[in-house]
Design a protein that fits this description.
Layout lengths: L2 E5 L3 H12 L3 E6 L10 E4 L4 E4 L4 E3 L3 H9 L6 E2 L5 E6 L4 E6 L21 H5 L21 H16 L8 H10 L10 E4 L3 H15 L3 E4 L3 E7 L2 E7 L2 E4 L6 E3 L3 H7 L9 E9 L10 E5 L5 E5 L2 E6 L10 H16 L8 E11 L3 H4 L12 E3 L12 H16 L4
Helix pairs in contact: 1-6, 1-10, 2-10
């Protein structure tokens, strides 16, 4: 049976392993950590007494690679969300509240109705959004933002900051355009929000591990790759902490590790080398009945709030300035904002703040040019990860897409 190797069991690595397994390869997945999932992981938090996710990840109904991946591993029922594209918002500066409600089709009829638009915006403001879809490879998002302050602050900036995880003054307009073309420009049918349920691991990781095992793949956790040897234009040997693996002429290897790890392992590999943080806070209090599961926040420290059955969670993108912030003071501020948004009268419950310092590559034009393709100058070595040239910023859709591409390219080696 043909053999293949995947290094890294994050979402990109799992997607590559699934793709290769479907093509008839005996796949060995090696992961340095003690659990699969990478940044998309869940764990039992003793301080809270809850199973929480390392970060809150939102996908959309139009993310086709996500849908296909979950269907393959038997987890299509692990995403929850409203039937239509609706996004509640609260502006903490004046307590304005509104719900953005898009129609399903690509013609944005919803912008004709004041009660479905962002407060303070006119129909002509949305027409101006078309400018953000124009080709301009070196432009930043800030250079193409619409003139309407209300539209910028209450819609465009919250959505694009979450998608790009990069301050919009330096963020790539081309990557923003890729997001807009697959979401707002496509219509509400592609924009309905979806949250992994009951956890990220239960939706994206555990079903994939079960599927791979059931189909003959081997997953080895706690197995760190120490080095790679090349010979005659191909990858010839993998050196792990527990020994070496000789790699055959037509045996593909997919390297699905963080960018900085790949750069250390592969000679001359150029990768994104600037990153931004994401901060998440979890509060162990069950939301009241009927609480909106997702709320966008304007004018506060919080950016997006999530009401899970057993907790409230906060996500703050491009959170570099908060990496060293006083945790107690930040938790108090975030809880005060949660209480205002959900109109709660409750003391602050037990909490946990998690900060991923290198959550995503900095989605700037300069960093985007450093993203490598899936192929390398070694014919059997492929790259996967949301930091590769997927055409999207660092998202779950991009990570899975990169794994699928790398796996399919690898499968052609033995064809």
């Amino acid at each position: 049976m043909k053999r293949a190797y995947v290094i890294g069991a994050g979402l990109a690595g799992l997607a590559a392993a699934v793709a290769l397994t479907r093509e008839g390869y005996a796949v060995t997945v090696s992961e340095a950590a003690g659990q699969a999932g990478g940044r998309c992981r869940s764990y039992e938090d003793r301080q809270l007494g809850l199973t929480i996710d390392n970060g809150n990840h939102l996908v959309l109904s139009g993310n086709r690679t996500v849908a296909d991946y979950l269907a393959t591993v038997g987890a299509s029922d692990r995403l929850a969300g409203p039937a239509d594209a609706r996004f509640p918002f609260v502006d903490l500066r004046d307590d304005a509240r509104w719900t953005l409600r898009m129609n399903d089709g690509p013609i944005p009829w919803w912008t004709l109705f004041p009660d479905r638009r962002v407060p303070g915006t006119k129909l002509t403001d949305y027409v101006a959004l078309q400018a953000m879809l124009r080709e301009s490879p070196a432009a930043t998002v800030a250079e193409q933002l619409p003139a309407s302050v209300a539209l910028r602050e209450r819609l465009v900036e919250p959505l694009l900051l979450a998608a790009l995880n990069t301050p919009l003054e330096s963020a790539s307009a081309a990557l923003a355009r890729a997001i807009l073309r697959e979401t707002l420009a496509t219509g509400g049918a592609a924009c309905a929000p979806r949250i992994a349920t009951p956890t990220l691991a239960a939706a994206f990781v555990d079903p994939a591990l079960d599927w791979l095992t059931a189909h003959g793949a081997t997953v080895r956790l706690g197995r760190r790759l120490r080095g790679i040897a090349f010979a005659e234009g191909r990858l010839a040997r993998l050196t792990f902490a527990d020994g070496d693996e000789a790699i055959g002429e037509d045996e593909p290897v997919v390297l699905a590790v963080p960018a900085w790890v790949a750069a250390d392992l592969v000679p001359g590999l150029v990768v994104p080398d600037a990153h931004h943080a994401i901060l998440n806070a979890h509060f162990a209090l069950a939301p009241p009945a009927g609480a909106e599961p997702i709320v966008g926040v304007v004018g506060g420290a919080a950016q997006w709030l999530f009401a899970f059955p057993d907790r409230f969670s906060v996500t703050i993108s491009a959170a570099d300035a908060l990496v060293d912030a006083d945790r107690d003071a930040l938790a108090a501020q975030l809880w005060e904002e949660i209480a205002r948004v959900y109109r709660l009268d409750a003391p602050m419950p037990p909490w946990r703040i998690l900060c991923e310092k290198r959550a995503t590559f900095a989605a700037t034009p300069a960093q985007a040019r450093r993203r490598p393709s899936a192929t390398t100058r070694w014919r059997n070595l492929l790259l996967a990860g949301d930091w590769t040239a997927t055409g999207l910023p660092s998202t779950i859709e991009g990570a899975l897409r990169s794994g699928l591409v790398a796996g399919n390219l690898g499968a052609r080696l033995g064809a």
